[in-house]
Amino acid sequence: MTPAHVHPGPADAPAALAGPAAALLLAAAYLMTAARLRRRGDAWPPYRDVSFTAGCAALAWAAGGRSPGGPFTAHMAQHLVVGMAAPLLLVLARPLTLLLRGTPPGPVRRALRALLGSRPAGWLAVPPVAALLDVGGLWLLYRTGLFAATGQSGVASAVVHTHVLLAGTLFTLAVCQTEPVRRRWGLALRGGTLLVAGAAHATLAKSLYASPPPGTSFDPADLHTGARLMYYGGDLVEVALAVVVARQWFTRPVRAGRRRAPTPAAGRRRSRTR
Asked: Cβ distance 77 to 67 under 8 Å?
């Protein structure tokens, strides 16, 4: 068998501990910032704390835990957590909004706003572009010799997992659009992109069921179990994303009515001008 995924051994212990430690530190920073907002009287729903903490805990498990099953099944479990489930939990917690609200007024906040509103950031957040970077990267990983090459290098494996996390987070952010971005895209484009990306992900899983990534050799039972996990696990996360988009569609008239409704003070001002 050509190893395509290396579980950390004793020599890799420092690297294995770095990922969980970083995830837990990130969760702690989020919770402290949210607590600071509440102390000054700002509203920040507790469910976002739970969502972000769960996402970080999932990343910590994927970075340092051991998955059941064969090597390919274990890798697919990590893929689903790092590239799909954890990004959804993180994005629903709105960390960029929290960062902006928690940063004191000044040059740092202005720089953050300028970065989020920049043209490059806007292009990356276009749903089809984000989908291409996410699902297209997976096709490149699993249908070329790249997957076999990462099994021979811990650094290459870390780079690939980092890309999977960032691309999955970008795609989730582009579909959900819960954060301040340069341009808001319509529900039709986001929903259609989600459907196409889901179909491409499912097709990739079916191709892996038929044949392993080039340059690798897995036990057929392990290969089939991992491909099924990728197929059905991906469907579950994509359904969750669809629920988020559908909820935005159902609540859009309510939000629009709230924006149009005059405030009591505005109503008093109009009455005084009559």
From this structure: yes
